[in-house]
Design a protein that fits this description.
The protein is an alpha+beta fold. It has a single domain, classed as Gcn5-related N-acetyltransferase (GNAT) (Aminopeptidase, 3-Layer(aba) Sandwich), CATH 3.40.630.30. It has helices at about 5-15, 25-40, 40-45, 55-65, 115-130, 145-155, 185-190, and strands spanning about 20-25, 75-80, 85-90, 100-105, 135-140, 160-170, 170-180. The chain has a 7-stranded mixed sheet, sandwiched between helices. Helix 2 packs across helix 4 (about 55-65).
Length: about 190
């Protein structure tokens, strides 16, 4: 395959995984994403406090995360092979000289435990490291979100530190775990 065909194939498949495709957020997506964001059972996994926002405010958050106007990040809807909206993934903060991006993901409650999060993260890591030139990708999770921490670890993220007692639920403080993956750690995984 010549360079032209190789790069065309790369571009065609860049936002595709085995189970998902990352695509621009559509106006009809934001109400679903906002409902997931405001679901208190899900909010406790994503946010430092449970405080549902007015729907229009939560929709505006997803719109701003998904504008794709900054060269230092992206925001995409996650769609399965049947064209169902299953989540949202966003990266921000990628810039010179250190080229570190922060990654965040939301998977709808009814779509969890089907491999969509893993596949979307794999696509996002490929995009960040191989197309956007990231040297490091960071993310955070609450210490009680064992499922997310296990996923991130299995993808090759390494715990780098903790923000101790960073959130409070049911009168107990919990740490926020900070994880990272360097370019060479990504390359050593051998996945593309």
């Amino acid at each position: 395959m010549n360079t032209f065909d190789s790069l065309r194939s790369w571009g065609t498949n860049l936002l595709r995984g085995e189970q998902v495709i990352l695509r621009p957020v559509q106006p009809t997506d934001t109400s679903v994403l906002a409902a997931w964001w405001n679901d208190t059972g899900e909010a406790i996994l994503q946010q430092d406090r449970i405080a549902p926002r007015p729907t229009h405010h939560a929709e505006s958050l997803f719109d701003s995360w998904s504008s794709n106007e900054s060269p230092g990040g992206f925001g995409y809807a996650i769609e399965d092979q049947q064209e169902n909206l299953v989540g949202h993934i966003t990266a921000w903060g990628l810039g010179l000289p250190v080229r570190i991006a922060t990654l965040g993901i939301v998977i709808g409650p009814e779509y969890q435990d089907h491999g969509y999060g893993r596949d979307a993260m794999t696509v996002a890591l490929r995009l960040l490291f191989e197309e956007m030139g990231a040297n490091k990708v960071e993310l955070r999770a609450w210490e009680y979100n064992a499922r997310a921490l296990a996923l991130y670890s299995s993808l090759g993220f390494v715990e780098e530190g903790r923000r101790r007692a960073a959130t409070l639920h049911r009168s107990k403080f919990y740490d926020q775990v900070e994880l990272g993956m360097l370019r060479e750690e990504y390359a050593a995984r051998g996945e593309r």
